[in-house]
Task: inverse folding
């Protein structure tokens, strides 16, 4: 059985991806900060007949990251790590001249430092898998300059660079940074609460992630819209 660790898995894209993998028979280790919501998500996913471990906590806590890896080891190892947990830095988003530095530190700590820390913790199991892969969830704000998205975008740009270097250093693994495109998520609602324009649901972009797992292209940065259209 394949085993995946997914952070930020209680709702949104993390939950949608977890459901798609559970439907394929994957065993899962799920992370989120809100224990009750995470347990509800895990209970729903167990209906697929797979093993699901819910490990609530904060990815910035090294002890919590170790718990996630230990839970995966109990399921037989790790074949996939999805780094989806994210922090905005300010809710709602603000211009850089108003961005609290503590908020920026939090975004960097969650989106970059904790993501690398979890990779470091899980690398031995990924290397042993034979098909080990890492997906870091990026954003178009990592590559484009949008007003008020500076702190979050900078953190995702840093995560993209880490993923790119990791792909060079770990030739036996697949390291994919994926920009999912616009989605209707709680994160976006918190970022721009006054934006009422309709956006696709996270489940709609999950096939792009599954395509990566099925076809295993070279490590690199990919856009979900292009993958959904059959391009790379």
Result:
């Amino acid at each position: 059985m394949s085993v995946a660790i997914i952070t930020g898995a209680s709702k949104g894209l993390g939950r949608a991806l977890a459901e798609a993998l559970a439907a394929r028979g994957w065993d899962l280790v799920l992370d989120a900060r809100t224990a009750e919501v995470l347990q509800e998500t895990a209970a729903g996913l167990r209906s697929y007949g797979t093993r699901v471990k819910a490990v609530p906590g904060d990815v910035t806590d090294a002890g919590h990251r170790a718990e996630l890896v230990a839970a995966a080891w109990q399921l037989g190892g790790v074949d996939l790590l999805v780094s989806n947990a994210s922090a905005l830095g300010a809710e709602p988003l603000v211009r850089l001249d108003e961005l609290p530095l503590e908020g920026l530190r939090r975004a960097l700590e969650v989106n970059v430092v904790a993501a690398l820390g979890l990779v470091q913790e899980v690398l031995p199991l990924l290397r042993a898998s034979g098909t080990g892969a890492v997906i870091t969830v990026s954003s178009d704000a990592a590559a484009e300059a949008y007003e008020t998205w500076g702190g979050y975008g900078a953190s995702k740009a840093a995560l993209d660079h880490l993923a790119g270097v990791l792909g060079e250093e770990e030739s036996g693994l697949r390291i994919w940074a994926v920009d999912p495109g616009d989605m209707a998520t709680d994160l976006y609602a918190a970022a721009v609460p006054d934006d009422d324009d309709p956006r696709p649901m996270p489940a709609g972009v999950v096939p792009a992630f599954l395509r990566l797992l099925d076809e295993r292209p070279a490590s690199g940065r990919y856009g979900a819209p292009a993958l959904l259209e059959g391009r790379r």
